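dumping this here before i forget
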Amino acid sequence: MAAHRVDPTFVKELKGYGAFDIDACFNCGNCTAVCQHSEETAAFPRRLIRYGQLGMRDRLLSAKEVWLCWNCRDCSDTCPRQARPSEFLEASRRYAIAGMDPTGLSRLLYGSGLFLAGFALLLAALFAGVLLSRAEAPASGVLDLFGFIPFELIHDLGIAVMGLLGLLAAVNTTRLVMHISRSMDTNSEQPDGGQPRANLISRLLSAASDVLDEMTRQRRFRSCEVGAGKPFYLQPWFVHYTIMWGFLGLALATALDFLFKNPGLWVPLWYPPRLLGTLAGLALMYGTAITLYRWLRPEARIETRRLPSDWLFLGLLFLVGLTGFLLEALVYLPQGSALGYALFLVHVVLAMELLVLMPFTKFVHALYRPLAYGIYRFSTARGEEAVVSDLSPAD
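structure:
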């Protein structure tokens, strides 16, 4: 096995992305024993902790296992040394997000709460300025949102934002795949790893099926014991489920509304896209409200350190849902008001800001986690571990 240069400065750098005391870890293996997702050959999460202790930056960045953790904190709760391995994994994910970002903005957003606040305010002011530059005097009578801010302007601004997101997503996911592929056992002579073409296709389909199954049923998250004994609607997996599908449902409702309805046309509440958006919004509001309540509890501050960027992401989700619901209520009132137009401006600005910040904050795990899990399922579809000979816990 090749020699590795120890870099003791890496742990200090990594601590900037979260609070943990991994120096206290002596590799007892308790975290691996209690983790519901650990496999005998993966030594998870113990192997990742060793990478951090030895300063193996590239190995940690390329480890797909970083994205397989659901942060249930079982390992931290049972760690005899209080090394807080779950916090280490959370910090590793933030480090990985920053590592995939070629702009360096993620590192700045994670590293300084003051910079994060300034950037968020600047971004909001920029969007508000662009929207107000074409705003017309609000009409009297029924709320006419697109008479206030032209639909074409919102559409063009949205296209520009989505184009930027698409470009960054392509770059970032390519970097993620390239990093993770370094940890996969590939055959340099055969591009398909020595597997027959039919078997390769079968593995791809199997991996895609597993990712879809995990997204729809959250089986791996449900296997975590945290929240056991609570009603299902208060268990972490279900709360996460409502946030994920609430957001996806709102995105689908918005797309359907754009494709099949004239902008600004009044429709009843039971109009299918509107009904879908209402139900998805309820799910999103429920999940974000429960999560914010849990984060605000005094004991939560001891359990897990939240960075300002975490609060910003969840806060934006909550406010986008809240302003959307208030707008929906005002649309059905017989008389418009200045409050409705102000809420519309705030809602659009917050939604745009949430999307722009996606590649640089925790939000991007919605893209990275399924991709990493798909690679993981693809690499293990042969019935054998498909990772290179990594540093074992005993080394």
